[in-house]
Amino acid sequence: MWDGKIQKRIGAVVKFPVEAIRPNPAQPRRYFAYDRLLSLAQSIGENGLLQPLTVTMQDGVPTLVAGERRLRACKLAGLKTVPCIVVKQTDEQAAVLALVENLQREDLHFFEQAEGIRRLIDDYHLTQEQAAARLGFSQPTVANKLRLLAFSPAERDKLAAANASERHARALLGLPETARAALMVRMVAENWTVARTEREVAHLKEVENAPRRRVTPLVKDVRLFFNTVDRAVETMRQSGVAVNAEKRQGDGFIEWVVRIPDERKVR
Questions:
Q1: What is the pTM of this model?
Q2: What's the CA gap between 71 and 65, in Å, rounded?
């Protein structure tokens, strides 16, 4: 714990023990590549930390606002203390700043981006328009990123493992979950481009939406056929045709023979 004097040093650089700095609870990044952290740790060990971390004081504890990757690398490098810029931030401002910092980094996965935006909206009861304004995005961009959360955790893992792009994922979103799963397997196995993925999705949707030929159902009750034949025979008899109909039932079958005179031979 630190006394109130720290609060008077807002905007100043203060050294804090690395173990005393609390991680940002709104950190959108969930995965940190160890090889990159190790490379950064080696650089910090040789040259020191060139850019201070950003922290805010919460309940007397320095809480990280921006720079978690640098903090982790400092721990790997064996640093005991790190320079930090102390800022006055609300929880929402800290969350926004952490998300913006990570969004500006190309290696933040698009699913992590979407999850970060969703947490920002849910935790601080923002509309999509308000979240977009805080992040410097357009509202449609925020909406498109949030749509990616329709993928199940298992689907997200598969797409991330296959290094699929955000455009791959958006194309697949146009399909129902069952069809999406089957197409995803082919996409990953055959290493489809975005264009190929979009073509396959469009083709599948076209097939699904094509009008289906009406199929006449089979009549399962054979008595309906018998009634139809009976009516036809009776109609011919009333018309003067000397039709002869004989029905015989055997072991497992019914035989019905209808004999109609050949008018050519009668004449």
A1: 0.52
A2: 11
